[in-house]
Amino acid sequence: MTTQSAPPVYRFARRTEGAGDGVSAILSLADPGDTITFSGGFPAPETFPTEVLGQLLGDAVSSAAPVALQYTATEGLAALRGTLRSWIAAGQGAEPADDALMVTSGGIEALSLLARCLVDPGDRVLVEGPTYLGAITAFTGLEGRVEAVATDEEGLDPDALAAALASGPLPKLLYVIPDFQNPTGRWWTTERRRAVVEICRRHGVPVAEDVAYRELAFAPEDRPSLWSLGPDVVVQVGTFSKIFFPGVRLGWAAGAPELIGAMVAAKQNSDQCAGGLGQWLVERYLAGGHLEPRLAVARRLYAERAAALQAALARHLPAGCSWTRPEGGFFAWVTTPAGVDTTALVPEARLRGVAYVPGAPFFPGRAETHHLRLSYSRTDADQIEEGIRRLGGLLASAIEEDR
User: Fold this and answer.
1) Domain 14-46+293-402 in CATH: superfamily?
2) Which CATH number fits domain 50-287: 3.40.50.300, 3.40.640.10, 2.40.50.180, 3.40.50.1820?
3) Phi/psi class of residue 329: alpha, beta or left (left: φ > 0; alpha: ψ in -120 to 50)?
4) Which segments constitute the Aminotransferase class I/classII large domain (predicted)?
């Protein structure tokens, strides 16, 4: 006789509550069907270096299999780290030491490792308000207390940062995106960069600088990375997802050797090492001089789509709406009149065949509901025009109902 047993009871940890909901919703639109989507920060497939990749993949299988198809050291392939150090030095004017750089499985893993190394339950973590929702999840997933610092068109407000540092326990970390920020598209001025680094150095607070979009400026202008200004206080987090292709899932962290060493040890208890094939491909791609010509193509494409978005917003969004005017990257940030709840409008937007990301998840605590993020990176000009026309009609109806 068989006996029936009760199903298991899964007693989930408190830190799992709501973890990743916003990111999962965005990634679910990777294949949008008939919907015109401005949701995910997906690079345009036209920028993928398929011809070069075909050649490199053939080489990986035919002659480099012992390296490309094998496990790697936790800190990454030595050849890739050497090439990456040179590439960082060429673009930022400073080169990380060998023990000050590690390879990660994308930028989000670098943030997760950073959180694991620095954040205990209840610790304060400061971020821009608004900021990348994946970073908020990384810090709250370790039960950190994430707090927003005010921003304006020039970047993080130094006075607001100083006030936040002067009140309450000293934060474990400040996380920022100075270049074409996700979600606003803003580009910090050089003065703001210097001020933030100096304030954090004075208070002894580490800065995590996310440079996911740094290489995607529409016009050349040299604005120093925070890491180049303060390698003693800044850890830089980067990714190849936006400038190579996201399927490779590869990134890096550059910072103080003490911190990078702790992150390498933490990685040994997660995925142990990033994929060897992806590392080999990136190293060969960089060393072969393929990245810069491809970046030039990507910058032109994204600049054209950003211009198309700006023109469509001016034509179709109702009075009372405002938006940012990015000079690089993937995103623009729309602010509606205060009575409009962009989260509540998502289902109606989908019925109209358009998708966006509501602004609330980009704020710790999700307090502000009258913003939305638009990504133009994967949407062509005709789709941008029609999608914003649909969105404008939706917002006009919502504003009228709120009166």
Assistant:
1) Aspartate Aminotransferase, domain 1 (3.90.1150.10)
2) 3.40.640.10
3) left
4) 66-391
Indicate the helix (H) or strand (E) that contains 307: helix 291-316
Q: Confirm if 153 and 129 have CB atoms less than 8 A apart.
A: no
Starting at the edge strand found earlier in the chain, the sheet holding 124-128 runs: 101-104, 251-254, 234-239, 207-210, 173-176, 124-128, 145-149
Q: Could you tell me the pTM of the whole model?
A: 0.93
Instruction: Tell me if 213 sits within 8 A of 241, measured CB to CB.
Output: no
Q: What is the pLDDT along the chain (403 residues), one digit of tens a residue?
A: 566 677 788 777 776 665 555 555 554 554 556 899 999 899 999 999 999 999 999 999 999 999 999 999 999 999 999 999 999 999 999 999 999 999 999 999 999 999 999 999 999 999 999 999 999 999 999 999 999 999 999 999 999 999 999 998 999 999 999 999 999 999 999 999 999 999 999 999 999 999 999 999 999 898 999 999 999 999 999 999 999 999 999 999 999 999 999 999 999 999 999 999 999 999 999 999 999 999 999 999 999 999 999 999 999 999 999 999 999 999 999 999 999 999 999 999 999 999 999 999 999 987 789 999 999 999 999 999 999 999 999 999 999 986 7
Domain ranges for the chain: 14-46+293-402, 50-287
Please, how many CA atoms are within 13 Å of residue 13, restricted to the half-sphere of its CB?
A: 8
